[in-house]
Amino acid sequence: MMNVFLNFKEAFSYLIPGRIRGAKFKDWIGALLAPLQSLNVVFADYVSTTRYDLSFNGQVVYLERVLNDKFDDIDRRIYIDDPAGQQVFTPYVFNRVEQQPPLFVRNKSEALPTPFLYNTAELVVTNDFVVHVPISVFNATVETQMKALINKYRIAGKRYTFQTF
Q1: Rounded Cα gap, residues 81 and 63, in angstroms
Q2: Which member of 32, 89, 123, 149 has the greatest number of CB atoms within 10 A?
Q3: Do 94 and 157 belong to one domain?
C-alpha cells in the first residue's frame, strides 16, 4: 500500500539551495507549508479510514468484525446466526396434511426428534440472519447506529433482526 503522508517541511528543506539554507529560512518555509501539512494529515486520516471501510463486505465474518470493532471492542461478544426457522432437516417426503405414516431415514432407536420437510409456503421466516447483541451493549442509540452500519455492508435484499442475550 502506498503511504500518502508526507513531511513537507523536511522534503522542501532539501530543495533549498545550500547558500541560503539557514534556520530562519527553513522556519519561514515551514510556516508557509504548515497549511499544506495540516491538509496532508487530514488526507492521510481519510485514506486510512477509507481503507478500513473498504476492507469489509457483507460476509458474516467481516460483518461480525466491524460490529465488534465499533460496539464491543473488548469482549467481542456480538455474533451473527441464521434464524431458527431455517434449520430444517427432513425425513418426510410428503405434506403433513396428507397424514401418511412417517418415512424414517434413520433408526428409530436413535430417539432423535422428528424433523419435517416443509414446503416453501409453510416456512415463515421473516429475516435472513439474526444479530445477537449483549444486553449490556444494546440500547436505542446503539440499535440505530448498528442498523446504519449493517445496512452499509449487508447484501441487498437480506433482512435481519436483533436479539439480545
Answers
A1: 11
A2: 149
A3: yes
